[in-house]
Amino acid sequence: MLKLDQFGIASRWHEFLGKLRVVPYVNGTEDFESRIIAPYTEPHRAYHDLTHIEACLNIFNELALKTIRTDTTLNIDECYNILHTLELAIWFHDIVYDPQASNNEERSVDALKQFCKDFEINKNIMNDAEGLIMMTKSHNESMMVHYKLMNDVDLSILGESPKAFWAYEHGIRKEYSFVPDDVYRVERCKIMKHFADKEKHGKLFQTELFYEKFNNQARENLRHLIAYLEG
């Protein structure tokens, strides 16, 4: 079993519960290992694991916090609600991940709802987090800042260093090892071309800070991967 503090995940989780003003226990039982650790350490996960969640939380802390805190259209309560909603969605957006299923986001939402019920989380935060998780299924554009940020956090891997990007691609291929290579290349290429088209039209990253940090490298990463898949 993974040590709970290996990625600092346990302390981050408890810090987050503190932000929500809830204690990390239900009926006196600490269930962090079964609720968070167990699903994210399933043996079939090679990318959608705790390392991915840690990376999303790091990007959240680096860029999402700054984006929200410098948004002059938001009051302090709105800022806190958006930040809590975003972080909640990050924790749960891949809590259910089966490469052979098409309803992972819906089942992840079910896990989110159960958590919010157990810990009596504000329903508005729960409902907004549900919307953010479902958005990661399509990555459609939105006018709402927390949806834009969820999109950008989830897609930030596309603009990471070539080393990190190819590690991501190899992880995805491993998760889809049951798919024949010729089929994988065709279907994966369709997805990457979709993202490349969004980048071409300036719509891959929807917030300024993420665009500045990741867009140029994402363009190069996508170009190289598409060439590889088509080769």
Please tell me about this protein's structure.
This protein has 231 residues and is an all-alpha fold. It has one domain (9-230): Hypothetical protein af1432, CATH 1.10.3210. The chain has helices at residues 9-19, 32-40, 50-69, 76-92, 104-119, 123-135, 145-155, 162-175, 181-200, 208-230. Helix 3 runs antiparallel to helix 4 (76-92) and helix 4 packs parallel to helix 7 (145-155). The longest helix is centred in the last third of the chain and has 23 residues, at 208-230. The mean pLDDT is 93.
Outline type: globular
Count the strands?
0
CATH topology annotation: Hypothetical protein af1432
Mean pLDDT: 93
β-strand amount: under 5%
- The helix/strand order is HHHHHHHHHH
- What's the CATH class label? Mainly Alpha
Largest sheet: none
Q: How far apart lie the N and C ends? A: 40 Å
How many helices does DSSP assign? 10
Rg over CA atoms? 18 Å
What proportion of the residues is helical, as a percent range? 55-70%
Number of domains: 1
Segments where pLDDT lies below 50 for 5+ residues?
none
Give me the secondary-structure category.
Answer: mainly alpha
The CATH architecture comes to Orthogonal Bundle
